[in-house]
Sequence to fold (1012 residues):
Amino acid sequence: MRTDHHLKDPHRERRIFNVRAVIAGLFVLVLAGCLVARLYYLQMLNHEHFQTLSDQNRMQLQSVAPTRGLIFDRNGVLLADNQPVFSVVIVPERAGNIDKALESVRQIIGLDDDHIDRFRKRLKQPRRPHQSIILKSKLTEEEIASIEVRRHELQGVEIEADLARYYPFGELTAHAIGYVGRINEKELGQLDPSNYSGTNYIGKLGVEHFYESALHGKVGYRTVETNARNRVLRVLSHQDPVPGANLTLHLDIELQGMIHELMGQRRGAVVAIEPETGGVLAMVSTPSFEPNQFVTGIDFKSYAALRDSLDLPLFNRALKGRYPPGSTIKPIVALGGLDSGVTTTHYAIWDPGWYQLRNDDRFYRDWKRTGHGRVDMRLAIAQSCDTYFYELALKMGVDNISRYLGYFGFGENRSLDIEEAREGILPTREWKRGFKGQAWYPGDSLNLGIGQGYMLATPLQLAASTAVLANRGVWRPAAMLMSASSPEFELPHIPESERNDVPIKSPAHWDFIFSTMEDVMHGAQGTARASAQGAKYRMAGKTGTAQVVGIKQGEKYNADLLQERHRDHALFVGFAPVEQPRIAVAVIVENGGGGSTSAAPVARAVFDFWLERIGLIEPEKPAEVIVGAQP
Amino acid sequence: MSRDFLRQMPGAESYLKRGDSWLIRLHLDPLLMVLILILCGFGLLVLYSASGQDMEYVEKQAVRIGVAFGVMFLFAQLDPVFYKRWSPWLYLLGVLALFGVMFFGVDAKGAQRWLQIPGLMRFQPSELMKLVMPMMVAWYLSNRYLPPGFKAIFVSLVIIFVPVVLILKQPDLGTSILIAASGIFVLLFSGISWRLIFGFFALVAAATPLLWMFVMREYQKQRVLTLLDPESDPLGAGWNIIQSKIAIGSGGDWGKGWMHGTQSQLDFLPEGHTDFIIAVLAEEFGFWGVMTLLVLYLMIIFRGLYIAAKAQDSYSRLLGGSLIITFFIYVFVNIGMVSGILPVVGVPLPLISYGGTSIVTLMAAFGVLMSIHTHRKMLTK
Fold:
């Protein structure tokens, strides 16, 4: 270009540069000013905002789960304990590649497909962010050590120590106090999220479920400083959790264990209640199951075995088993007959072995084909004469019978803290119209009079009604809980005004019914006299037999089994001692045949054991109890 | 008076200061030297904290600083005339090396930036270019009539364009922009007309949308987008910026104290000892700590500008001016990106960030500046 041929002018070049250098200096100052302004904005004007963010980064509020309250029996024997359990867990957010993490853990401690399946199932369920998912529970010391050693390669895999429920008596208490298990999806939606933020287990059944809020306690918090990898460096502040209340039950584990052993391999249920308090002294349902395997999670195979077992070990017969009460309700029907003035104690009939309604060809048979001959009320109860009660039922009518049975708690759950108890069926005219769409026939009353037909009752209801009877009508609702350690905790109770005692006008009627039931045990013709032999005290009772209807058509059982399972259920209710009842009991032995042969001996053993235990009778060499003997 | 006479002679007055004379004879500028030493010392202090009190890092870095000072000393001994003579050949070598990278380069972190010299060492031709680019443009322009005409400007732009495109291909957006800037600064110092300068900026402004659409890679766009809205990707690309802003902001006026920065000590701040070290400093020493650092930088920069202004020939002036302003740009871009007003381009904080290559290049540049200042011809005319 033209200019290139000009001579260079060093002074002009220097001048130009100096001007440009000054401009460059100003340029530097302006840009530096921008930085200063930015830093001033961040560090001076918005310092508090960023200070907060910085604190949120490093400080985390962690919840500390409260220790679950313990459960004791009436003598302070520990029934539900907390024990440390170590589990290997994965935090998906930190693990990144979950398949890789699973594979590494599998190589170290060995996992079943079952573990991995269950893990994947839990992974899909909604959960709190950064919440760990359990992979394998109840690690052995060796497994813990081998994971710890290789921890650096296991991103997101951690060992979690946790207190888990432990039931020292295992299957002995499974049905009586229930069990806890891991919180599931459905429960998660219903729980108070803050109070349960650190909790993994929740009561699933029984006492554990009913008293969940008392047993759980209140969550605590701690503020911890963590680094970017979420490792806790120190605790900045903390608020301790409030441990759950310790509960003491009416249950006596010795009695429970003794009954459990007595029942042995038989299917059935026994409920024993202290009439004075309504406290449940024993609640046995056999066969039972090992509750500890449910706490940390039962594997599919074991669960399927329990679920599909013909003996229904998971089924709590004491609360949910609905049986026709059979002859066990006869004393109550008789009491109703007397109180309503329909009959008298001396009224007698001739029993030919059957009963027939007018204008009806059908024979209503007595259990004794040849008949009892002349029968009054005393003998009718002692001998469990059906014909007598057919006639009484017809005279009383369904309304009266149902009313009196209702006084004794049939057809509803009148227990205090046993929510799983079923209501059974107390048939009335309305009930039959509603459920069967039919009118009530006189024949229905006949069946109801001997506890057959539509009526269904649970062993708990039978025991509770017997306790009310022993109390001469004073209602003490069946209760599991005796006391709690926390002063804030209020025991559930039913106000006096709503107690609904049984309104029997004449005390003499109680005396009479007691004496007829005493005759069942001690009378020369009592059905259960064999079971009362040699007793040092007087007891009252009533045997019963329930016809089996439960076998479904088309189920494939082997013939012998079918035969056995078609046999009648044996029932017995009773209390002792008669003068001042201390224990009321209901026994059901499924397919046990007659009540007198397989159910009454169990009750006798319970009476002996308990009265001895409370010091009412001298301990001596145990009476010869024939258990399960066939007639 | 003889003093007055002497003062008239450009660059002669320093000979009057006796105490400095031995440093001058070693071709070192005492003021620049002291400022750089203070800065490096400050840097090591912050590095010790930023590395999680790891003495190994500090020792390694101290060794690098030592080596860098050696390089600076070496570069200071060479006469500016020597640099001027060798500029075109160095430029040619640099461009060839960049081509070499293109064909034989070594991959590192998804980019080809290194050249392996068999049996010798790995080196980064783009680092060489940081020095050579202003040298070449200064060489070219200083041989022309100044202010440069259109042809000279055009040739200069071609000189700048070739290596910049090669570096952009590696890909290394940050370095290519900085190297382009170092060449352009020479042009600006050479006195090209303001109309051209503003026209150029207008052109850049117009070209930006086109660049965005056709030239920029996805990851580069992402960086800009993340800058504009870091919260859009708080756990990914935005994490660094969010955390560094928190670190800086939570530092407040006087900071949380040395080794007490929670963001850096608890590892919330990534790259705390390299590119994001200013955030550690800001968190632990607060606003006034950063101000101290900035003042140190500004003193170095104004000393550099002074040296350039006092240089005896156009080549030295243009080279010195470009080197020192480029140095400032490094400072500005780094602090700007860490504090969230510029995109994250991966520029270390000069003389403070942990890392070898950049500190050696920087100190070589200071060596050149010192050479300019101390190789004075007593009587040029």
Summary: Chain A has a mean pLDDT of 87. Chain A is about 40% helix and 20% strand. The CA atoms of residues 417 and 479 of chain A lie 6 Å apart.
